[in-house]
Amino acid sequence: VKLIARVRRGLELGEFELHYQPKVRLRDGRINGCEGLIRWRDESGSLVSPGLFMPKVENTTLIAPVTRFVLNEACDFAMRYGNRVSINFSVRNLMDDVLLEELRQRVQETDMDPALLEIEITESALMHDLFAAKLALERMCGFGIHVSVDDFGTGFSSFEYLRHLPITGLKIDRAFVSGMEQDVRARKLMACLIEVGHALNLEVTAEGVETEPQHHILRELGCDQAQGFLYAKAMPGDDLLLWCRERE
Ligand code: G
Ligand code: G
Ligand code: MN
Ligand code: NA
């Protein structure tokens, strides 16, 4: 059966889960929230990685119900967790007025604090239609939601767009992190990207942190947050709550 049809059916059957990867505040090592990442427990019971289906789903209208599922899970979890949860939006989500209205209702017409929700959008998704992106970001910002640029530094774009968008954070792509230990130039680039973020009053997060030396370099460079396998992989919400409790 075609992948898209299987995903649609999987959604109806409740085969999708949202797992959460913690983000660590580098200044004091405290847990500062998490990123929700979708997982699919398919017919056979095995976990399918989003890398295998999201690129296809993102090109179809099915991205709307998938993101709606993610949004609802993330908001429920954020209220239970009492900490920030981020989710990923793709290009089509930004142009989806119905989804944006649902987002507004979800944070404004419930007792959820909108600041608990953060939307991550890749630099390339923003660049796809900068004008539409700007309108969508302005709306989300108006709801009190935070918005970060994901995979920052890899979208073949200038920095100029940053000036025009109401964003609150930058997530520096893991390509910069993975080179830092061996390559002085990667370290210097990282230092510059952190400075770009701080110059614009943005919270800077490094992705894909896998080693202690990377953690220490980022801390010394003044990076605000880090996320990666060094701390933890994405895990079910209940596991993350336990993990946080054990760590504190
Ligand atoms: O969790 P993992 O590293 O396997 O995710 C692989 C890719 O799928 C990443 O690029 C991630 O951003 C993307 N992804 C994971 N969950 C979601 C989601 O809920 N929505 C969108 N649009 N992308 C997601
Ligand atoms: O930016 P994006 O939303 O694509 O990032 C989320 C993805 O990155 C998820 O698929 C997650 O599993 C993956 N990821 C998270 N931490 C690490 C890490 O330390 N190393 C690598 N290689 N991938 C990571
Ligand atoms: Mn992301
Ligand atoms: Na990313």
- Terminal CA distance reads 46 Å
Strand-residue fraction?
15-25%
Q: Give the overall average pLDDT.
A: 95
Total DSSP helices:
11
Output the structural class.
Answer: alpha/beta
In total, the number of domains comes to 1
How many distinct beta strands?
A: 10
User: What is the third-level CATH name, the topology?
Assistant: TIM Barrel
Poorly predicted runs are: none
- CATH class wording: Alpha Beta
Question: What summary fits the major beta sheet?
Answer: 8 strands, mixed, barrel
**Tell me, what's the shape?**
globular
Question: How would you summarize what this structure contains?
Answer:
The protein is α/β, with parallel strands linked by helices. The protein is built from eleven helices and ten strands. It has an eight-stranded mixed barrel with strand order 1-2-4-5-6-7-8-9, surrounded by four helices.
Q: What report would you give on this structure?
A:
The chain is of the alpha/beta class and 248 residues long. The chain has one domain: Alpha-Beta Barrel (TIM Barrel). The chain contains eleven helices and ten strands. It has helices at residues 3-12, 54-57, 63-81, 91-94, 97-108, 123-128, 130-142, 174-179, 184-199, 212-220, 237-247; strands spanning 16-25, 31-41, 47-48, 85-89, 117-122, 146-152, 169-172, 203-206, 225-226, 235-236. It has an eight-stranded mixed β-barrel with strand order 1-2-4-5-6-7-8-9, surrounded by four helices. Strand 8, helix 10 and strand 9 form a beta-alpha-beta unit. Helix 3 (63-81) runs parallel beside helix 5 (97-108). The protein starts with a helix and ends with a helix.
